[in-house]
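Practice problem: predict the structure.
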Amino acid sequence: MSEKPIASDLVPHGSAHLVLAMEPMEGLRHLPHAHPDAMLIANCTPVKNVAVYPDVEQLLRRIQAWPRHVILDAEKLAREAGTVRAVNSVMLGAASDQLIIPWEKLREQVGAFFARKGEKIVEQNLKAFDLGRAAAKE
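Answer:
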């Protein structure tokens, strides 16, 4: 999302104002792209898809050292919403106050996106969005 034309899908180093990480190591991997005032929002649940995954506590300490950060347990919040499959909605909710699109519009679109899957899925994802949003404000 941009107010200006985008010439590339690559984010220049030091220019991203939001790093949204589905797991800790990915958040740190993308920090070189972050502007010094960027918000880093990271899920604390690791995806251990490499043979030797770094110590999670050490990764989380490095994230905590970033001036503007939020660490949340998106998997736990998604389960609380009714399905672990709603992790993306948790993370979108957590990021919602950092985007130029009003959070109410984002929430509305979450409902519209999942509408064809039925009311239960819509409600789970809206709750996940709300839980992520609340967690980012704590």
